[in-house]
Design a protein that fits this description.
The chain is of the alpha+beta class. It has one helix and two strands. Strands 1-2 form a two-stranded antiparallel sheet. β1 and β2 form a beta hairpin. The longest helix has 10 residues.
């Protein structure tokens, strides 16, 4: 029987911010989280569509980003 070996390409994803992590805004209260989300929400669609967003934080509660997970319909 023949021994088959496969070569597979490796993919690596990395995150290299162009700023220092200590300069990122920090969430210390629900009010801070609310302000971050409202800054990134489209005011024209706020009452029209359901949207689900997630704030990505590091262990120091510094904001790494905001991700739009889904948008709902009109019904």
């Amino acid at each position: 029987m023949e021994n088959l070996s496969f070569k597979v390409a490796e993919i690596e994803i990395s995150y290299h911010p162009a700023f220092k992590l200590a300069e990122l805004p920090q969430v210390t209260s629900a009010q801070d989280a609310y302000e971050v989300l409202m800054d990134r929400w489209d005011d024209g669609r706020l009452e029209l569509l359901e949207e689900f967003k997630v704030i990505l934080l590091n262990r120091g509660a510094r904001i790494l980003g905001v991700v739009n997970i889904s948008q709902g319909g009109l019904s």
